[in-house]
Amino acid sequence: KASVMEGVNFEEDPPTEDLEESMAKSVFEKLQEDRKTLPMYPYRDELLQAVYDHQVLVIVGETGSGKTTQIPQYLHEAGYTKRGMIGCTQPRRVAAMSVAARVSQEMGVKLGHEVGYSIRFEDCTSEKTILKYMTDGMLLREFLGEPDLASYSVVMVDEAHERTLSTDILFGLVKDITRFRPDLKLLISSATLDAEKFSDYFDSAPIFKIPGRRFPVEIHYTKAPEADYLDAAIVTALQIHVTQQPGDGDILVFLTGQEEIETAEEILKHRTRGLGTKIPELIICPIYANLPTELQAKIFEPTPEGARKVVLATNIAETSLTIDGIKYVIDPGFCKMKSYNPRTGMESLLVTPISKASANQRSGRSGRTGPGKCFRLYTAYNYYNDLDDNTVPEIQRTNLANVVLSLKSLGIHDLLNFDFMDPPPAEALLKALELLFALSALNKLGELTKVGRRMAEFPLDPMLSKMIVASEKYQCSDEVISIAAMLSVGGSIFYRPKDKQVHADTARMNFHTGNVGDHTALLKIYSSWKETNYSTQWCYENYIQATAILENEVMVPTGMVKLDWVRSMKRARDIRDQLEGLLERVEIELTSNSNDLDAIKKAITAGFFPHSAKLQKNGSYRTVKYPQTVYIHPSSGLAQVLPRWVVYHELVLTTKEYMRQVTELKPDWLVEIAPHYYQLKDVTDSVSKKMPRGAGRASETN
Ligand code: ADP
Ligand code: MG
């Protein structure tokens, strides 16, 4: 970089690139030093030896000891990636993304290159990828394409103690492949001490314990039960903030979900504003599954001097993510948990008391870097007498249709004798088989049909995949995959700012005019957006979420990273593209039938007929097959219309059991489309119209 001027020697200003490079270098060096301070580090060589000596290893270590971020790197450094990838599963997608981002920084590589992540509908990996973080559900799907996981040299089933449905199924599958792939290393890692159970299951695999560095945690219980735990949590957080030195440590509050966290955030903002400048700054950091990535990074930023951070988190902060600097934990004692009624096949998310194991994980989060304090917003009596010891594994409280379909397409037929760590209730297995049979995915012998084989290709719930497969018959696959994509976005499509709710609602209702359901409204939104050539401006005008408020570059403790998270419409487009690819794979032609709304509704019904409901005199609905009272969700375009018969996408329990995403239906269709499931008597309404007035049982309807 010599000067071009002859005779005089000018020295150039160092180009900014170099500056950035040297900054990056020092950041990199700092990260390498940090890695060496983790509890895991002194055991690096011992661990590598143990992995070398044993095919299967159970690893136990306190949250934050470095299991997730370090072990895959150690194995890479030891050469395991020469033979294949190292895959590490996470129960939550936020954790998979965030950990991959962290590890890519530690390795000084671009996220998505050597280190990547894979979550449903979002594959951030490349041919270069050697360390792959993924959700447990994604690894399960990879089995479908590669039953021996040949591209992996190591599989680490991380957060095994969470016992999610996918993790439990993975246990059975990976245990099986270790038998015929002696070169594959399998690591099962867990944050809790029930490692014996994992070891027993994996034929007495040795347990590698990483001694924790836990500081004492003082536990406080309330004297009496709290009627309003949210308010109690907020008051406690403020009390800590006001009475304790800010440099002293941050606060972590466990709440149950996004809505609760947003409410708490608002109240906290309001109350701290009320206290004015008399108190130090309180930085509020929410973290939950649907939080856009660039906002997630905020929780890892170091707290500025003189301020305090309060992290409002779901269960995700229990063991999946480690936030440094927490001294105070506030634990109201609840989480949102799935429960399933195998009789009706209905699934609901309920706010449920946590287990003792969870409570202890939560309190442990305060004693990582120094002595901590945990405020339990329940009584000591509650803790000792009312809380269960452990959380019931998800496999015992969920709908199994999805995994049964996956297992069937892996050729595993004898589900009752599958090697489950804890078997699901036989009733739930039967229910899943029954549903798959009703959807024509299985035949009477329980064997996968052609329909079932096609359905299994889609990373969707069986009813959604059935809807897509059925669209072939009704020649509307083009429309149906748009609907499926819109339903799969996760999070709201609609933007409803507090000061413009009326405008937003009017805009939303525009998509419902002349419409007969929320599904077709979603389709209309998608098609209109497509017509504008995917214009972001159009989204703003119509109060549709185009993307999250995008700051492309965000600060994390270690420098700038670029994480772009496209949400809502852009995500829908992405998902739709993927579904279009899968259509091709199952050889369903992309055909459009946009003028025939009935055809589209029939395809929806072909997937969702088990979710049909009939209007009652009082404006409520009654589900047809397993009668239960339900209501149309107020956000639905049909909430005021109240059609006589509807199909719904899902039930959500808030103040009532609500149907969300509802479409009108003709009752005859139920018998036409699912004659093996519904009989004429189930849909008497339609019969009555064809019968002479006053005849027979027809008078019973309305
Ligand atoms: P474990 O899996 O044993 O719970 P991790 O490997 O996840 O531990 O975490 C080790 C350390 O790495 C944590 O103490 C935390 O400081 C740091 N860390 C992990 N993820 C991130 C992230 N996304 N951003 C910043 N730091 C992180
Ligand atoms: Mg971890």
Short description:
The chain is 38% helix and 18% strand. It contains 25 helices and 23 strands. The strands form five sheets. It has an eight-stranded mixed beta sheet, with helices on both faces.
Mean pLDDT across the residues is 87
Give Rg in angstroms.
Answer: 27 Å
Global outline:
globular
Mind summarizing the main beta sheet? 8 strands, mixed
The helix content, as a percent range, equals 25-40%
Distance between the termini: 88 Å
Class per helix and strand makeup:
alpha/beta
Number of strands: 23
Number of helices: 25
Q: What ions, cofactors and ligands are bound?
A: adenosine-5'-diphosphate, magnesium ion
Which percent range describes the beta-strand content? 15-25%
Strands of the widest sheet, in order across it, are 4-3-5-2-6-7-1-8
Question: Could you characterize what this model shows?
Answer:
It contains 25 helices and 23 strands. The strands form five sheets. The chain has an eight-stranded mixed β-sheet, sandwiched between helices. A hairpin with a 2-residue loop joins strand 3 (115-119) and strand 4 (122-124). Mean pLDDT is 87; it is low at 1-7, 547-566 and 686-702. Residues 38, 61, 63-70, 98-99, 101-102, 300, 322, 324, 557 line the site of adenosine-5'-diphosphate.
List the helices and strands and how they pair.
Blueprint: H1 16-37, H2 44-53, E1 56-61, H3 67-77, E2 85-90, H4 93-106, E3 115-119, E4 122-124, E5 131-135, H5 136-145, E6 152-157, H6 165-180, E7 185-190, H7 195-201, E8 207-210, E9 217-221, H8 229-243, E10 250-254, H9 258-275, E11 282-287, H10 293-296, E12 308-313, H11 316-319, E13 326-331, E14 334-341, E15 346-353, H12 356-364, E16 372-376, H13 380-385, H14 401-409, H15 426-438, H16 450-456, H17 462-470, H18 477-487, H19 501-510, H20 518-531, H21 536-541, E17 553-556, E18 559-562, H22 568-585, H23 597-608, E19 612-615, E20 621-623, E21 629-632, E22 645-653, E23 657-664, H24 667-673, H25 684-690
Bound molecules: adenosine-5'-diphosphate and magnesium ion.
Protein name: RNA helicase
Enzyme class: hydrolase
Domain Helicase ATP-binding: 48-211
